[in-house]
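To: structure desk
From: M.T.
Subject: fold request, one chain
Message: Could you run this one when you get a chance? Sequence is below, nothing fancy, just the single chain.
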Amino acid sequence: MNDIMGIIASTVIFLFSAGNNPQPIGTGFIIGYPIPYKEGSVIPLVVTAKHVLGDHKKVLARFSTQAGSSTAFVQYDIEAMKRQNDYWEYPDDDGVDIAVFRSLHFEGTKYQPFPIELIATKKMFEENAIRQTDRVIFPSLLINFMGSAQNYPVIRDGSIALIPGEKVPMKYKVGSREIVTKQEVILVDATSIPGASGSPILLWPGPRLQGNTYQIGGTKPFLLGIMHGFYPAVPREILDVQTSDTKKMYSDNSGIAIIFPSWKLRDIFESKTLKDRIQEIAKAEANKK
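Reply: Done. Structure tokens follow.
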């Protein structure tokens, strides 16, 4: 189990604002997208919540290093990536709070790409009877302690509280833009804290009750979604959903977190724009030989 937890933690990177005084803005994680015709090789893609990037034209990602005694910052030019088709959002629905952008394999950095085949589809939810009360875990940035010799994501847990059968009204901000929408989301009994936005939500890979069968050997750590934010505790306008930017979190937080489901990320990976770009990269790699 410790090995699995270590691998899960190593998929995560910490995201910061770029500039003279970088500030932590959220969590990202790396998916390994297979390179066509090149078995065993992947293109690293960074996944996070769209509101984490907000209006930032550039962001910094903090990686652990192979040396194990320091961290390294990598700058991503989000504006340039959008021009180069290396940045993707959900097609035809601006309300989905997921952003994906391409990364390079940076020499000396240490990370473990999450396998694309473990991103749960709706069918995988059904086949594995993933439902309310299932335990989940999520590695994320803890702003008060993130480590200096390496990244230290905290691994927190909770359980699925509800997978609504209808879309949920939401209002939130992406930078200066206000998003008013209705979305398929999953509600999790867990406290989302500042810095957790963009974290991967995973099915706990331990013993689990599936139907009437108790799985002693546990299950695969399927990716179930991406952390968005939390529902407030006090009564207010139904559309008012908080992301991670709040000062009175513990008085306002209801303990119910909102995640955007993994099948929405699958849809992004299946989009024509992303697939075409991957093919273009694969051809360019092949031509180098």
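Reply (cont.): The domain at 2-285 is CATH 2.40.10.120 (Thrombin, subunit H). Let me know if you need anything else for the meeting.
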